[in-house]
Task: inverse folding
């Protein structure tokens, strides 16, 4: 088994250079472990080895972030590291921000797995917990003993490219990707226990904190729809017969853009639904039931609308994540806007 | 209402001449069952297979899973209003062939049928890898519409389970449990100091192959109502839906509702299980408003201190879930909800289609978009023809070795929202 090579980032304080009066200490590359590196060395055993330690002053990093990042990246690039670890920073704000910033840069620019550790209230935690693995630590250096084994264990997994468990298993701060894992009790028992705590006014931890929900305020009314270009967009899965772009029946990874120039009616021979979330019989018999091209053409003819836009956008809403939906809409909304479409009728199922 | 449930442990199923249970083995006569199934003019053929835990077997596309049960004492019979005549169930004595299940498969109805693997990675995600399964594989008559076929397959599965359940009537159970659900006043007198807790079960009723039946009534045509949880153990609620396999409550899930079981195990100790409320998940906004209003109204009028709300399905019903939660919390009733997540394959999307700060106590059955690769298994019961098309599949998801890659939403019961499983997410 090969030993993973680790580069460790620490600040001037943990390197023994000094406190606040030395916070302007410029980046320095040293051989082997320094300061808390000794604890990591012990935790890694023969599985990984700190080959280099970078020492940098907190003020220097935060006051010269671009220069610091560049210097550090240049230092790390040639080390041949399998893993980059920063901190742990506990509740030291500038140190935490520096750890988060350099980890993000190393991950992005060098593609090396990264890991840091912080107290949950460290400002660096809020800034980076959705981008990095940040092991949750105590608020001060007395938490080193418990933080290092968790960081070492997760670090080894990251270096080996193994899959990472849920935050609650590995000890990192939740906030990034949701990860499945098997609990000790079944869900119903967890619900009963949670309710008993809630009833007793005792603290309990929800398994999914409510997100800030993205609610969209409706646009002002269109003043004169008889002059407007109207587009049809659907999450009901209407596609040309045969589903040429193979949009999935659930959890769609794509959307379709189809031209309906000269199409006055969607028929069973020409269109169908790709949606797997409802009985497709009625939509397949007459796809206008989901994407009302026939009515829109009639309105167009009667002058009730300006005109029907000559393309429609379609995807399958079934089991499709809101993130994917947002991504699709961002793309085609721009096209609709560029083509001066004033009205979109969004049909769902 | 008081129901005594006797469990007869089944460790194997075998085909045999005489249907019976002997020394933990359930013997079934395939010919007799075939004749029973083919009484239905919509079904052209049926074949039977047995799948045991640990065997290299993949079952797909799975429609429903049903536990064989039979009424021994008390009014009514299993699956009232559907298989048996309408009569109130939930009291007296019921026998269960524990460890056995009837699994129905056959040509796909509506893309949302699932996979059960009896071994390997997939087996970890479905509770039905641990039951001995009698699998009924249906062939519908030509020219049937999807909903006619669904109804025929649904009833045939229930009939098979009913017939098997009868074999346990005269047996002595290996284990017995008594579930007593007091009336309001009785409960209050008996447990004056315990918090009064209710369970609100949301039933899938979006229509178009997403239906649930209560005493034979299509739940989308009902307003929010109440019943005794023991009635559900006797098959008062049955599944008739093709919602994604991972969060469809099969009939088996209803018969063994874990929220009911876990509330009963605390009943009289830490809480007073006072009310069982069922509500629907209709697609029209007016229905959603009305049903959630009624949920909150019942919860309020019953003066409950706390409720657990469980969901079925995802997306559209997330709205019903949040409406129910918001309104029950607004009555001052402490609320915990059970749901699951669609956080995207990488887990970074918002997990629900609706949210509210009042939903501050949530239990999750996991992220249904998680991708898994299921190795090729030796035997397939049913067909893998729809592996790309079922909810959770995608184009080109079978590799040269025969492994299939799917989101776990394709696995029957994987992210169940009754809290049936250990799976969770953070």
Result:
């Amino acid at each position: 088994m090969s030993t993973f090579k680790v580069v460790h980032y620490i600040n001037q304080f943990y390197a023994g250079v000094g406190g606040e009066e030395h916070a302007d200490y410029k980046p320095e590359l040293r051989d082997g472990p320094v300061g808390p590196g000794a604890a990591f060395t012990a935790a890694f055993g023969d599985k990984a080895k700190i080959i280099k330690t970078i020492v940098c002053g907190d003020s220097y990093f935060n006051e010269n972030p671009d220069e610091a990042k560049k210097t550090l990246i240049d230092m790390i690039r040639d080390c041949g590291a399998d893993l980059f670890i920063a901190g742990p920073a506990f509740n030291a704000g500038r140190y935490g921000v520096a750890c988060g910033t350099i980890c993000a840069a190393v991950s992005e620019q060098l593609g090396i797995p990264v890991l840091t550790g912080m107290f949950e209230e460290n400002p660096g935690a809020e800034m980076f917990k959705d981008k990095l693995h940040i092991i949750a630590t105590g608020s001060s250096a007395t938490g080193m003993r418990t933080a290092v084994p968790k960081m070492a264990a997760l670090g080894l997994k990251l270096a080996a490219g193994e899959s990472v468990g849920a935050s609650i298993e590995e000890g990192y701060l939740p906030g990034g990707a949701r990860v499945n894992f098997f609990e000790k009790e079944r869900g119903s028992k967890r619900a009963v226990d949670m309710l008993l705590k809630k009833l007793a006014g005792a603290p309990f931890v929800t398994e999914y904190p409510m997100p800030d929900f993205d609610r969209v305020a409706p646009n002002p009314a269109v003043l004169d729809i008889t002059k407007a270009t109207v587009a049809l967009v659907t999450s009901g899965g209407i596609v040309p017969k045969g589903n040429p772009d193979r949009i999935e029946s659930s959890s769609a990874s794509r959307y379709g853009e189809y031209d309906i120039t000269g199409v006055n009616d969607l028929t069973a021979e020409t269109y169908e639904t790709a949606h797997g979330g409802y009985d497709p019989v009625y939509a397949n018999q007459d796809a206008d039931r989901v994407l009302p091209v026939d009515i829109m053409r009639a309105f167009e003819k009667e002058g009730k609308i300006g005109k029907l836009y000559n393309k429609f956008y379609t995807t399958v809403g079934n089991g499709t994540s809101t993130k994917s939906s947002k991504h699709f809409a961002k793309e085609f909304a721009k096209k609709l806007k560029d083509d001066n479409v004033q009205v979109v009728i969004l049909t769902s199922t | 209402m008081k129901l005594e449930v006797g469990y007869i442990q089944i460790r194997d199923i075998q085909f045999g001449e005489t249907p019976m249970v002997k020394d933990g083995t359930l013997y079934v006569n395939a010919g007799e069952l075939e004749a029973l199934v083919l009484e239905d003019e919509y079904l052209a053929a049926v074949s039977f297979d047995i799948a045991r835990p640990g065997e290299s077997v993949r079952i797909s596309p799975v429609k429903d899973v049903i536990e064989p049960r039979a009424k021994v004492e008390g009014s009514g019979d299993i699956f009232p209003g559907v298989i048996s005549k309408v009569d109130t169930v939930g009291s007296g004595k019921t026998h269960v062939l524990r460890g056995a299940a009837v699994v129905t498969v056959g040509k796909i109805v509506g893309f949302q049928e699932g996979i059960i693997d009896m071994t390997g990675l997939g087996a970890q995600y479905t509770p039905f890898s641990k039951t001995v399964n009698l699998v009924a594989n249906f062939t519908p008559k030509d020219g049937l519409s999807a909903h006619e076929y669904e109804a025929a397959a649904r009833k045939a599965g229930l009939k098979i389970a009913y017939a098997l359940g009868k074999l346990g009537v005269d047996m002595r159970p290996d284990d017995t449990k008594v579930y007593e659900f007091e009336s309001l006043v009785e409960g209050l007198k008996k447990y004056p100091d315990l918090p009064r807790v209710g369970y609100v079960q949301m039933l899938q009723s979006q229509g178009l192959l997403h239906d649930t039946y209560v005493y034979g009534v299509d739940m989308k045509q009902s307003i929010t109502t109440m019943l005794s949880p023991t009635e559900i153990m006797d098959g008062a609620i049955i599944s008739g839906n093709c919602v994604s396999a991972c969060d469809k409550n099969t009939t088996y899930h209803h018969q063994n509702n874990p929220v009911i079981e876990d509330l009963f195990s605390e009943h009289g100790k830490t809480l007073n299980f006072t009310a069982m409320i069922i509500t629907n998940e209709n697609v029209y906004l007016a229905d959603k408003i009305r049903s959630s209003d009624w949920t909150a109204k019942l919860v309020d009028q019953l003066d409950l201190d706390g409720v657990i709300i469980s969901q079925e399905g995802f997306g559209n019903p997330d709205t019903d879930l949040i409406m129910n939660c918001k309104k029950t919390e607004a009555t001052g009733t402490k609320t915990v909800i059970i749901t699951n997540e669609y956080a995207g394959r990488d887990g970074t999307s918002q997990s629900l289609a609706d949210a509210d700060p009042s939903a501050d106590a949530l239990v999750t059955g996991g992220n249904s978009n998680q991708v898994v690769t299921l190795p090729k298994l030796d035997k397939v019961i049913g067909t893998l023809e729809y592996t790309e098309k079922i909810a959770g599949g995608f184009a080109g998801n079978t590799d040269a070795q025969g492994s299939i890659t799917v989101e776990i939403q394709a696995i029957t019961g994987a992210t169940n929202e009754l809290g049936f499983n250990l799976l969770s997410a953070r």
The two ends of chain A are 55 Å apart (CA to CA). Chain A touches chain B through 57 residues (CB under 8 Å). The mean pLDDT of chain A is 95.
